[in-house]
Amino acid sequence: MITASLRAVAILAFLACLPCVFAAAPACAGTLIRNATVFDGSGGPGVVTSVKIDGDRISAMGDIPPQPDDRIIDAKGLVLAPGFIDTHSHHEFGIDGAPAAAEAISQGITTIVVGQDGSSPDELPLAQYFAHRQQHPVSVNIASYSGHNTLREKVMGLAEREASDEEIGKMQLLLKADMDAGALGLSTGLEYDPGIYSSTREVLALARIAASAGGRYASHLRSEDRHFWEALEELLTIGEQAKLPVQVSHIKLGSLSLWGQADKVLARLDAARRAGIDVSADIYPYTYWQSTLTVLFPERNFDDLAAAEYALSELTTADGMHITQFDARPEFVGKTIAEIAASRREEPAVTYLWLLRLAREYSPEYDGQQVVGVSMSEADVERFITWEHSNFCSDGALNDGHPRGIGSFPRILGRYVREQNTLDLARAIHKATGLAAGHMGIRQRGQIYPGYYADLVLFDPERIIDRATIEKPGLASAGISTVWVNGVAVYLDDAATGAPAGVIIRR
């Protein structure tokens, strides 16, 4: 008896071969991956089977006879999974100069979701950005949010005040254009300028535009430390009142006084879900973040010694603040605030304020400086990783000063799965693929299924591991064998192939 699902699979397999039939080819050639342990991205267990790629799609699974021209890959001992979907990425910055996106694809990422933290890519309307990317494709798929900070700056510049009704209306029109172009939704970076000066009313008015187009809302919360609980409630209020899915970007508890409260956070999120708010989170697997020296000053009081002392005692430490970019004095890159303070023979908080003054003299907008700060508890990170509704991300970039830009997904699979048994392999792959796709509203990706796009990663579960560190953030991970984007191998034999196989993914 042939079931409806089997009949559908057979039809899809036939349709995948039609181009070959019409071309009068003797058989439908493709890539046949045999003997792999296939985790399909649904969260189910791995099964040793075969998967066939024809064109940009998965055409069949199971006991598949090879065709004469097929490229056959014997993947015995390896895991085949859907390509990883990085739901919070900054890998788009500089990608025109590095279209192979090696830092992303070398860790198994096949789709990056950009426009994060309130900043749209290249600060362009998404229609223009998408058109540019279609003319100049890269090796990864790209989906994007529309960034609140970008919209706000276009309408208000860097105004340090709340928006008027007229200004909100102008932002809504810009957002609607981005949604019409295919944005996934609205993103905010409410700890950053100029979004830090916005009201909840302003963000809610924009979120309603995203909701009306079937979009979603992702937020770098207004506070990840001092005012975390109020910031979390703001996100939930927006989800409830705008009636759209909301996601906590790179969820974290970034101050010592919050450490150990992950269960309390998740209890609040679970309660919100029971109340009908579709809230989720993404997370990267490190206890340190990367941002600007200014981010720890929510009052933007950059001459306040007490604020600097608080930042270095409650939010991070002088030993844990590593300079990764400092254009005003490049020789400081790689040093900690503690080391710079010791060389100046002064207290670290004094040095912190001095560095801010140097940055301001170099650029009134405090451009050209980045720092990695250690501020999270490993136990909290592990707890957030295991939450049923959290998926994985990198929050990383090309040429990143933070190892997350090149190591996030192998770190999860190597350290948290194989070494620490924090979660099992099937669940981890689901969080990197099928669950991530669901949280982004991305269809026909994130699972291995006939008819879905052939975004795939083949890796060795016994060898996969991150190697990048704060001191050496550019070291590629180990254990990734092959990565396909839309059926094309973009990573093979420990190197990017440079194939421009990525496409734009619209809502």
TrEMBL record:
Region forming the signal peptide: 1-23
This chain belongs to the protein called D-aminoacylase
Question: Which keywords annotate this record?
Answer: Hydrolase, Signal
Q: What is its EC number?
A: 3.5.1.-
A GO MF term = N-acetylglucosamine-6-phosphate deacetylase activity
Q: Does the keyword Lyase apply?
A: no
Which EC class is the enzyme in?
hydrolase
Superkingdom classification of source: Bacteria
The family database entries (SUPFAM superfamilies) matched by this protein are listed as: Composite domain of metallo-dependent hydrolases, Metallo-dependent hydrolases
Q: Which InterPro entries match?
A: Amidohydro_3, D-aminoacylase_insert_dom_sf, Metal-dep_hydrolase_composite, Metal_Hydrolase
Q: So what family is this one in? A: Belongs to the metallo-dependent hydrolases superfamily. NagA family.
Gene3D superfamilies registered for this protein in UniProt: D-aminoacylase. Domain 3, Metal-dependent hydrolases, Urease, subunit C, domain 1
Q: Tell me the GO BP annotations in alphabetical order.
A: N-acetylglucosamine catabolic process
Task: Specify the Amidohydrolase domain's residue ranges.
Answer: 71-310, 400-491
